[in-house]
Amino acid sequence: MASLEGKTALVTGASRGIGRAVAERLAADGALVAVNYARDEAAAAETVAAITKKGGRAFPVRAELGVPGDVDALFAALDRELGSDAPVDVLVHNAGINVSAVIEDVTPEMYDRGFAVNTRAAFFVTRRALARMPDGGRIVTITSGVTRIAFPEGIAYAMTKGALDSFTLALAKHLGPRGITVNNVAPGIIDTDINAGWLRGDADAWRASAARAALGRVGEPSDVADVVAFLASDDARWVTGATIDATGGSDL
Ligand SMILES: NC(=O)c1ccc[n+]([C@@H]2O[C@H](COP(=O)([O-])OP(=O)(O)OC[C@H]3O[C@@H](n4cnc5c(N)ncnc54)[C@H](OP(=O)(O)O)[C@@H]3O)[C@@H](O)[C@H]2O)c1
Q1: Atom of ligand 1 nearest to the CA of 224
Q2: Digit-coded pLDDT (tens) for 122-134
C-alpha cells in the first residue's frame, strides 16, 4: 500500500514549481491532493491532469492567499469538493512570493504583501485546518535557506521565512500531544518560475548558482518534493519542530 493511501493533502501554491512537484509526489504516494492556486487556472488544471494520468487523485482549489477572506475562500472551495467534515491529514504551506529588494527599496506595500502571502496565510490556514486534522497529521512548510545566511538583497523575504521557523518550533510543541508533526523544508536555488527573471536563460547566473551548491547543480522542484514526502510519511513520525535543509549543501 502506498504510504498516504486514504489520506487527504492540501498543498498551497500547487499549480506550478515546487508546489506542483509536491502535489504530484504526494498523489503518487496515494494521497487525494487539493491543488491550491491563485490565478493560473490552466497550470492548476495541468497539475491535476498530470496526477490523474498517472492514476492519482487530485482536484484544483482556487483561492488567492494573502488577501482578506483568503482562508474562508480556501476552505469553502475545499468543502465544495470534499464536504465540511472531511479531514485534512497533510497540510503543505508552499505558496510564496519573492520580495527582492534591499531595505532602501522595500516599500510598506511590498513588506506587507510578502508577510501576507508567505507568513500570515500559513498561520491562519493552519489555524483553520487544525479543527479537521486528525491526530497523527502532518504540517510541512516551505521556508528557505536564506534564513541561515545574511541576505540583504531579500531582507524582507528572509524575514517572512524566518518567522516561519518560530511558528514551526512553537506549533510542534503545541501539537505534539496529538501526534501531529510540524516541520520546515528549506530549499536553496530551485529552477522555478519564481527565479525565471534572473536565472533562466542567463548562463553565467546558472553556473554561479550551481557552483554555490556542494552538489554542483541548480535544484529541481522534485528535489524538494521528495523531502516533503518523507516528512509527510510515517517514516518521519519522530521528526518534529525541525527545518530540513534542501539546498544541495549550498552557501546560497
Ligand atoms: N524556487 C526557489 O529557488 C525557492 C527557494 C527557496 C524557497 N522557495 C519557496 O518555495 C515556495 C514555492 O516557490 P516556487 O519557486 O515553486 O514558486 P513559483 O514557481 O513562483 O510558484 C508559486 C506557486 O504559488 C502560487 N501562489 C503564488 N502566490 C499565491 C497566493 N497569493 N495564493 C495562492 N497561491 C499563490 C502560484 O499560483 P498561480 O499559478 O495561481 O500564480 C504557484 O502555484 C515559495 O514559498 C518560495 O518562497 C523557493
Answers
A1: 10
A2: 999 999 999 999 9
- C-alpha 46/C-alpha 15 separation (Å) is 8
Query: Counting beta carbons within 10 angstroms of the beta carbon of residue 139, is it exposed (0 to 12), middle (13 to 18) or buried (19 or more)?
Result: buried
Does 1 map to a domain?
A: no
- Calpha distance 106→95 (Å, rounded): 21
What is the spatial distance between Cα 176 and Cα 178, in angstroms, rounded to a whole number?
5
Gap between the Cα atoms of 91 and 81, Å rounded: 16
Quote the CA–CA distance of 200 and 48 in Å, as a whole number.
Answer: 25
Q: Residue 187 domain-assigned?
A: yes
54 lines ligand 1 (CB under 6 A): no
- 252 assigned to some structural domain: no
Q: How far is CA 182 from CA 22, 136, 146, 187, in A?
A: 16, 10, 20, 17
- Ligand 1 close to Cβ of residue 228 (< 6 A): no
**One-letter identity of residue 79:** D
Does any ligand 1 atom lie closer than 6 A to the CB of residue 165? Answer: no
For residue range 5-44, what is the model confidence (pLDDT) as tens digits? 999 999 999 999 999 999 999 999 999 999 999 999 999 9
Residue 207 within a domain: no
Q: How many domains does the chain have?
A: 1
- Could you give the maximum distance between any two Cα atoms of the chain, in Å? 54
User: So which residues are the catalytic ones?
Assistant: 157
1, pLDDT greater than 60: no
Ligand 1 pocket, residue 247 CB under 6 Å: no
Best residue for ligand 1 mutational test, from 10, 33, 94 (most atoms within 8 Å of Cβ): 94
Q: What is the CATH number of the domain that holds 88?
A: 3.40.50.720
Residue-number span of the structural domain to which 14 is assigned: 8-192+221-242
